[in-house]
Design brief:
The chain is α/β, with parallel strands linked by helices. It is about 35% helix and about 15% strand. It has helices spanning about 20-35, 65-75, 90-100, 130-145, 175-195, and strands spanning about 5-10, 40-45, 75-85, 85-90, 120-125, 155. Strands 1, 2, 3, 4, 5 and 6 form a six-stranded mixed sheet that branches.
């Protein structure tokens, strides 16, 4: 089987000079991907100037097009987000909107360019909303063409109120560990199947 590529979009509101709990959870998935031979990369969206809009290119200062090329090259796309007021971050919403801006672009078979790719979601926070945020992300990815395997929403949330975050809590939660492993293996398995047996174009082209 050809080597698979995975891309993580870290939608933390913190830039790379700050510790990101979401990135801590992402790195836990990367451990499994490394064992499986999956090449992976993390893009911290807060490090880039990403314009608002639903077009592929929003002008000379917009850095999204370079990120989009990485998305298109990846077999697996995982969006990681912290929770704010029970919702995915504003950067996660922005990422979905910009991806949606490419939903009419087609591959060489006339399908949406995101066809035959696999999606997943990672969520961290100190408040409720992980399943709600995951549902929003996974629906968005599915709507633009990504296939969503079972059990690819891994999350960690702390106790109610202020307290330790994921990294501070030791990244040692059996439920989260099991969810991370399922996400890694299920995205890997389905992406591998699609690499060799892509969805036929019959009945699902955009042309």
């Amino acid at each position: 089987m050809q080597q698979l590529k995975a891309l993580f979009l870290n939608c933390s509101l913190k830039s790379s000079n700050e510790v990101s709990n979401t990135e801590g959870l992402i790195k836990d998935v990367q451990v499994h991907y490394k064992q499986l031979g999956v090449e992976s990369e993390i893009v911290r969206l807060a490090d880039y100037h990403i314009a608002f809009g639903v077009q592929e290119d929003m002008g000379s200062e917009d850095q999204w097009p370079a990120i989009l090329e990485k998305v298109k090259a990846a077999d697996i796309l995982i969006i990681g987000t912290p929770l704010w007021l029970g919702e995915k971050s504003s950067l996660a919403t922005l990422a979905i909107e910009r991806l949606y801006g490419s939903s009419s672009v087609t591959n060489d078979k006339g399908q949406a360019v995101f066809y035959n790719k696999v999606g997943g979601a990672l969520v961290t926070g100190n408040e409720d909303g992980a399943k709600h945020a995951s549902a929003s992300l996974l629906y968005g990815l599915s709507h633009i063409g990504y296939l969503i395997p079972p059990n690819v929403d891994a999350y960690w949330v702390g106790e109610a109120g202020p307290g330790a975050s994921y990294i501070e809590a030791g990244r040692d939660n059996d439920f989260t560990k099991a969810a991370v492993e399922r996400l890694a293996y299920n995205t890997y398995h389905l992406a591998g199947l699609l690499k060799n047996n892509p969805i036929p174009a019959e009945g699902n082209t955009l042309e």
